[in-house]
Design brief:
alpha+beta; HIT family, subunit A; 3 helices; globular; binds adenosine monophosphate
C-alpha cells in the first residue's frame, strides 16, 4: 500500500523543497539530504510506487524506460558517466529501505570502495 504522505511524495507535490538535478515526465532527481559520497543523488519515478517489486510488477513500459533513461541523463549531468559511479536501490526490510517510494541512489565523485561494508 503506497503512503501518499511519504517524504518523496511530498517532494513530488512540491510541499517540501529539494535540490533538483533533473526532471522530466517520468523522473525527478535531487541531491540526497545526507550525502554518503561526494556525489549522492536520488532518482525517483514520478509514479506512486513503493519499491522495486511494485515498480517491476505495475509500472508501464514507458515508466520503466523513463526511469532507466532518466538515470542515464542524470549521471551525465553529474559528470560521473566517464569517471564511474554506483547506482543502488534499497528494497524492503533487509535492504534497509527507509523511504517507501522507489528511489535509486547514485554515488560518485570519488573511489567508492567495496560494495557491501562488513
Ligand atoms: P533508503 O534507505 O534507500 O530508503 O534511503 C533514503 C534516502 O533518502 C536517505 O539516503 C536519506 O538521506 C534521503 N532523504 C530523506 N529525506 C530526504 C529529503 N527530504 N531530501 C533528500 N533526501 C532525503
Amino acid at each position: 500500500m503506497y503512503d501518499q504522505n511519504n517524504i518523496f511524495a511530498k517532494i513530488l507535490r512540491k510541499e517540501i523543497p529539494c535540490k533538483k538535478v533533473y526532471e522530466d515526465k517520468f523522473v525527478l532527481a535531487f541531491h540526497d539530504i545526507n550525502p554518503q559520497a561526494k556525489v549522492h543523488v536520488l532518482v525517483i519515478p514520478k509514479g506512486a510506487y513503493v519499491d522495486f517489486n511494485d515498480f517491476s510488477n505495475n509500472a508501464t513500459k514507458e515508466e520503466i524506460e523513463g526511469l532507466i533513461r532518466g538515470l542515464g541523463k542524470v549521471v551525465k549531468i553529474l559528470n560521473v558517466s566517464e569517471t564511474g559511479y554506483r547506482y543502488l536501490g534499497n528494497n524492503g526490510k533487509d535492504g534497509c529501505q527507509e523511504v517507501p517510494h522507489l528511489h535509486l541512489h547514485i554515488f560518485g565523485g570519488e573511489k567508492l570502495g567495496k560494495m557491501i561494508a562488513k
